[in-house]
Amino acid sequence: MHLVFITLGNIQSDVRMQATSHAWRCVAFVPTPTFDIHPDFQTLLSSCLFHQCMDMVFDSLKKAALHGVAMTDPFGHIHNCFTPLVTYIADLPEQQLIACVSKNVYPVTTATLYQFGDQNPHPPHTGKDMLKQIEDLCRVVNPWDIVNFQKKAKLLKLHGVHLPFGQNWKFEDPIYFLNGKILHTFHKFFFDHALAWCKEASGKHILDTQYKTQHKCVGIRHFTSGVCHIKQMTGREHQDI
Questions:
Q1: Integer Cα distance of 97 and 92 in angstroms
Q2: Neighbours of 130 (CB within 10 A)
Q3: What HEC string does the chain produce?
Q4: Using CA atoms, how far apart are residues 206 and 22, in angstroms rounded to an integer?
Q5: What is the C-alpha separation between 172 and 182, in angstroms, rounded?
Q6: Rounded to an integer, what distance in angstroms lies between the CA atom of residue 68 and that of residue 52?
Q7: Could you tell me the residue ranges of all domains in the chain?
Q8: Other residues' Cβ atoms within 10 Å of the Cβ of residue 58
Q9: How confident is the prediction along the chain (241 residues), in pLDDT tens digits per residue?
Q10: In Å, what is the CA distance from 203 to each residue of 47, 52, 237?
Q11: How many angstroms separate the CA atoms of 5 and 63, rounded?
Q12: According to the model, what pLDDT value does residue 162 have?
């Protein structure tokens, strides 16, 4: 089962993240079945099922985002409220599933696997671009012919889903609501890239010497042995470095 939780963006973050506030609600249990079909199509059918279930679960929110719905605030005032999808918290494979791109493509840009490390900025992969690609592909190949459709979709770096759940959700665009997780976007990025660049630029010995000679300060760790030998670290150590 794939659990789907939802919350409101206008709830203060410190309140929303308290378990006792019950600010999150589980709205769906998306099944993850095993289909009696060739293994090459298991992922595609599971992805299509995910989008179909999400389309059904959030149908009322899509209508509210398009036309608005009357809601009463705590003071008894009635407001015409709209419900756009503000953010979706997911890991990279699920982000690729939502953006309908293959596993070797970044979900919010046009960069592919071998372009991830280059110095060139890549244009965003917007929801309109994705829907246009799927629409053009459906004109060429019948989407229910999953064998040929999947082959053609892979050539376009698409996942193979032809009915994404966000296609009729107003203001919905993956480049806006798909955000990187703090662990990988900041902490892992710093450890794997920024700190590695510093080691190469200055040399490990010089970098360690700089940290060893720093004056001790209350509340901040003093790295008496330097930092280049550290293989794993916590978020607090990332901050101190």
A1: 9
A2: 24
A3: CEEEEECCCCCCHHHHCCHHHCCCEEEEEECCCCCCCCHHHHHHHHHHHHHHHHHHHCHHHHHHHHHCEEEECCCCCEEEECCCCCCECCCHHHHHHHHCECCCECCCECCEHHHCCCCCCCCECCHHHHHHHHHHHHHHCCCCCHHHHHHHHHHCCECCCCCCCCCCCCCCCHHHHECCCHHHHHHHHHHHHHHHHHHHHHCHHHHHHHHHCCCCECCECCCCCCCCCCCCCCHHHHHHC
A4: 50
A5: 22
A6: 23
A7: 31-180, 185-240
A8: 22
A9: 889 999 988 888 888 888 888 899 999 999 988 888 888 888 899 999 999 999 999 999 999 999 999 988 888 899 999 999 998 988 888 999 999 998 888 888 888 888 877 778 888 888 899 999 999 999 999 998 888 999 999 999 998 999 999 899 988 888 888 887 777 777 777 888 888 888 889 898 999 998 888 888 888 888 888 888 888 777 778 778 8
A10: 46, 53, 20
A11: 19
A12: 92
Token pair 């490990």 in the structure block, residue = 204
Copy the structure tokens of residue 222: 């003093």
163 residue type, one letter = L
